[in-house]
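Duplicate of #3305? Posting structure anyway:
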């Protein structure tokens, strides 16, 4: 198929929508079914294992966006740099080592976290975690290769690969569960899907022409701030399921994971929206245009969350929520903090993408990273006093602090680019 076809915005939007829906089914809708088929304890253990999914993005954050920005600013679709293969090999080697260290740290947290019946303790549970971890390494290599597709503005192709992988993973999860393979089957399903993704991406990138101009070699200092920001973002948005296991039993932890991932899917949808526009923001470098799009998006997200609050607060779902193991959602304070935290997470994630695309100095990165790293301690401190509601308050407060830093940096950029008033004639 003609590569120019993949650059069409409608193709990219349709592929992104399909990917989002499939990921929502696999990571959210599938949880109650797994709870029914495998039991609450096994489903809760799978929830803890899959909470490590963002680790792949953390290891790619320092190099992914700078690479896409460099390719996008070459002047449109064309060949890859002459030294692309060497760069990608070096990138995946160091990223793979970092991912392995983070996986070991995650395993240590699961082993010492005191999650009770939700803990991964059985041998088949650790086997599932190992297979899932291998799948993460394959996904990391595939995402590194997809930077070439995104940088050459073939976002439709990239999203199509991801959507097909998600569909394959969903089908494999259902088949493995129905076959009675338990948790190891779930890990094997993820591994097979990521292997298929890597195979497709490598074939696509290998067929792309190489230019005669090399790209500058990667220095770890160039991506240190972005990596720290990504780790901090995971601390602020991806650790709540782990922490909730201290205050909720296994059955309710699955229900909390369902609600948390449903709201996180909204944040992911904002991320997909930002990724589709990121190359254009980089090439145009117009902050005002990005902020105008951000305002429209956040207004739509706020309207949807207000509607969800009205439905939850009406009392119609009180009995079904108790039956489904999500009785904590009947608490009005918990509802408010969950929805508010989700809106703030959407705001900070998308706003940060706009600034990353147009701000050359990126002075907001380290302050945001330091604030977000404080999210788990803040959530633990408040949760030890007020339980689940206190934990959610800690995360929401962190997102609010990050938003204030982004607002300050935005005002600085707008003031620096505003036209100066003409000087008055001397009297």
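Output from current build:
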């Amino acid at each position: 198929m003609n590569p120019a076809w993949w650059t069409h915005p409608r193709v990219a939007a349709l592929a992104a929508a399909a990917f989002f829906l499939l990921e929502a089914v696999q990571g959210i809708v599938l949880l109650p079914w797994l709870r029914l088929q495998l039991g609450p304890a096994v489903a809760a253990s799978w929830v803890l294992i899959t909470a490590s999914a963002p680790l792949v993005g953390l290891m790619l954050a320092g190099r992914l966006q700078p690479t896409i920005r460099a390719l996008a600013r070459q002047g449109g679709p064309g060949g890859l740099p002459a030294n692309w293969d060497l760069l990608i090999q070096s990138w995946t080697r160091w990223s793979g080592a970092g991912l392995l260290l983070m996986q070991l740290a995650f395993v240590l947290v699961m082993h010492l976290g005191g999650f009770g019946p939700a803990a991964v303790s059985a041998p088949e549970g650790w086997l599932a975690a190992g297979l899932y971890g291998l799948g993460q390494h394959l996904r990391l290599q595939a995402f590194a290769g997809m930077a070439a597709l995104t940088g050459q503005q073939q976002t439709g192709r990239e999203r199509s690969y991801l959507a097909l992988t998600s569909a394959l993973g969903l089908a494999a999860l259902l088949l493995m569960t129905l076959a009675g393979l338990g948790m190891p089957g779930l890990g094997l399903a993820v591994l097979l899907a990521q292997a298929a993704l890597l195979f497709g991406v490598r074939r696509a990138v290998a067929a792309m022409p190489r230019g005669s101009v090399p790209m500058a070699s990667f220095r770890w200092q160039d991506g240190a701030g972005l990596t720290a920001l990504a780790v901090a973002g995971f601390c602020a948005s991806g650790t709540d399921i782990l922490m909730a296991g201290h205050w909720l039993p296994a059955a309710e932890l699955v229900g909390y994971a369902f609600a948390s991932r449903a709201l996180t899917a909204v944040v992911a949808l904002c991320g997909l929206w930002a990724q589709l526009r990121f190359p254009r923001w980089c090439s145009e470098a117009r902050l005002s245009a990005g902020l105008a799009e951000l305002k429209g998006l956040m207004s739509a997200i706020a309207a949807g969350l207000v509607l969800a609050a009205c439905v939850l607060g009406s009392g119609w779902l009180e009995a079904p929520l108790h039956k489904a193991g999500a009785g904590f959602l009947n608490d009005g304070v918990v509802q408010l903090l969950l929805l508010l935290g989700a809106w703030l997470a959407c705001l900070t994630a998308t706003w940060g993408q706009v600034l990353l695309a147009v701000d050359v100095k990126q002075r907001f990165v380290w302050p945001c990273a330091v604030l977000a790293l404080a999210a788990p301690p803040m959530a633990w401190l408040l949760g030890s006093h007020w339980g689940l509601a206190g934990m959610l308050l800690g995360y929401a407060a962190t997102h609010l602090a990050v938003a204030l830093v982004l607002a300050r940096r935005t005002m600085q950029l707008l003031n620096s680019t505003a036209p100066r008033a003409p000087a008055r004639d001397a009297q």
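Confirmed duplicate; merging threads. Residues 375-417 form the longest helix (43 residues). The CA atoms of residues 85 and 206 lie 9 Å apart.
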